[in-house]
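Dear colleague,

Thank you for sharing your sequence with our group. We've completed the structure prediction you requested, and as agreed, I am returning the results in plain text so they can be pasted directly into your records. Please verify that the sequence below matches your submission; if there's any discrepancy, let me know and we will rerun it promptly.
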Amino acid sequence: MSMIYLDNAATSYPKPEDTYVFMDRFFRSHGVNPGRSGYDLCMEAGQLVDDTRRQLTRFFNGTDPDRLVFTYNSTDALNLALFGMLSPGDHAITTTVEHNSVLRPLHHLSQYHGVEVDRVPFDGRGFVDPGDIAARFKPNTRVVAMNHGSNVIGTVQPVAEVGRLCRERGIRFVVDSSQTAGKIPIDVQAMHVDVLAFTGHKSLMGPTGIGGLYVQPHVDIRHTRAGGTGVRSAHPFHLDEYPWRLEYGTPNVLGIAGLHAGVSWLEQQGLAAIEAHEMRLLRRLVEGLRGIPNVTMYCQDDLADHIAVMVFNVDGFEAGNTGTILDVDHNIACRTGLHCAPLVHAQLGLDAIKGAVRFGIGPFNTDAHIEAAIGAVGEIAAARAAKAR
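Please find the predicted structure tokens below.
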């Protein structure tokens, strides 16, 4: 039996065939260092990098492609943004929905750099109230950093409203779109997003090792690194101009090529069609698991404003054991534990039982995959109940 892959919240798999083919063809024909020399091959590789900047700027409804900078992933991007925007004496606000890509940089800033950090909890449905964030605003609040879509409970946060409140107060709004970019539309203008962090290897259908930031023209992020840019090499300081301001050394041109192909595939398919497919499968999955005795789901009562990510537990059974059985006995790949988002699990009381089992649905999952997952969880729950008797 072939593997059923339900770990798309960790990374999308498989990628579109277009991604594999384009990466292979481009690297064989243009695998040189872009922007460093004037020969044709180098210029053509640089053209792809520039084309991808423009493509992603359009994708997020940005205005200046030079403000689209490439990083290793969203964690790298968020570190650049947060360490480059916050200073001793500043106040930052985040939420308990966050991934460690936000939590840990802010913790380091609070412990070692004199930044005060507030963490706003989510409600019983899994959403953060914009009013609760605004209630934490202080005269020295400089940044609100917020997850667009939870990698645990799948809730899509009201970022447009939070962004509006931040814009009214002149507070910079940093959004982590790791789970939503490529699943649902993101408009940095309409959502009042000042800095958008994204990763390429999830729903943007690119490879690992590539991500980035879109930085609005009215925002500046100070240097925290320095190195080669291929531009103005005699200058002793790292360049202030974007995109070089936040890019250092040789770019991941192969990753950029894969990201370009992945986003092109998304644009051909249409985000609305992909979202409809994934959410239909999620509704069937939640419906099926809800009918199994001794299975508990979290924040899945109403699937409005959700992405196709969910967590559950078989009562009385550690998540890791459930995941092992799904893998070994049913050939279903999933993720168990705390999912690099410990405050979500702590607020739900799951930290004491070592987290939960996560299913993440992608565009290549099928009805048969979902039915197999429901059946497998049903068998595990029945076996656990029989053993408990």
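Summary note from our side: The chain has two domains: 4-13+270-388, 17-268.

Kind regards,
the structure core
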